[in-house]
Amino acid sequence: MTARSDTLYIQSLAKGMKVLECFADHPSPLSLNDIAEHCEMDRSAAQRMAYTLVTLGYLERGINGRGFVLGKKILERTFDYLRSVPLLERATPLIVDVQRESGERVELSLFDDLTIIFALRRQTKRQTYTTTLIGRRLATIHTASGRSIMSHLPAEEVDGILARTTATPLTSRTVTDHAQIREMIAKSAIDGYAIASEESMLGEISLASAVLDNENRPIAAIDISGSLADWSADAFAKRFAPMLMSATKALSGKAGLS
């Protein structure tokens, strides 16, 4: 059933959410004409949506009243979500300990079908601003975290994710060949972790292991990321894989995580 034929689907609410989502690719202030164009609606509809969202606090006017930007109320809903997921509360002290012991960036990402989304991130001093922010999505098949998760999925589900993913590679080193990705997933199932070299950021290596719920279903992954200027892939895995798998094992197998 499509959204248009679903009698429970509220088109006006969907349009309002689409206005908020258009800022994902356009972080600078947007005019009403910009919103109308990006959301494929007429200017009058864009004006009504923007006015309502400003009134509710989910949009604000830009500097000197020019254009619209996301409102601070968005952060309140982020807070509400983060405190509602038991896994994140349980994982936070572990993430802190692993980052302190490893000295590298450590993150927890949640599995969301075709993508993973970062929910906890502990950075080192050398990280860029965007790599410290939660809420970023990356394609499941293009990340060590995603492949570690996929190593715990049935073959037909892996095939479905591969078939439906249309994400653009992030770097020239991102692996896109499905046969090669399947090999990486199979290796992760044997090793207990996945590794990706320069696939999300040039010069960076990532090591990841999945977190499982009480039914052995993968729900998240923890990754440790470092610089290839400091580590070879083999040395990085040898140094941090035991630490990483110990952390995910400590979180896995418990009821009520998600």
Automatic annotation (TrEMBL):
InterPro entries: GAF-like_dom_sf, HTH_MetabolicPath_Reg, Tscrpt_reg_IclR_C, Tscrpt_reg_IclR_N, WH-like_DNA-bd_sf, WH_DNA-bd_sf. Pfam families: HTH_IclR, IclR_C. GO terms for biological process: negative regulation of DNA-templated transcription. Keywords: DNA-binding, Transcription, Transcription regulation. Residues 73-257 form the IclR-ED domain. Signal peptide: none annotated. PROSITE patterns: HTH_ICLR (PS51077), ICLR_ED (PS51078). GO terms for molecular function: DNA binding; DNA-binding transcription factor activity. Residues 10-72 form the HTH iclR-type domain. PANTHER family: HELIX-TURN-HELIX TRANSCRIPTIONAL REGULATOR, ICLR FAMILY, TRANSCRIPTIONAL REGULATOR. This is Acetate operon repressor. It comes from Variovorax paradoxus.
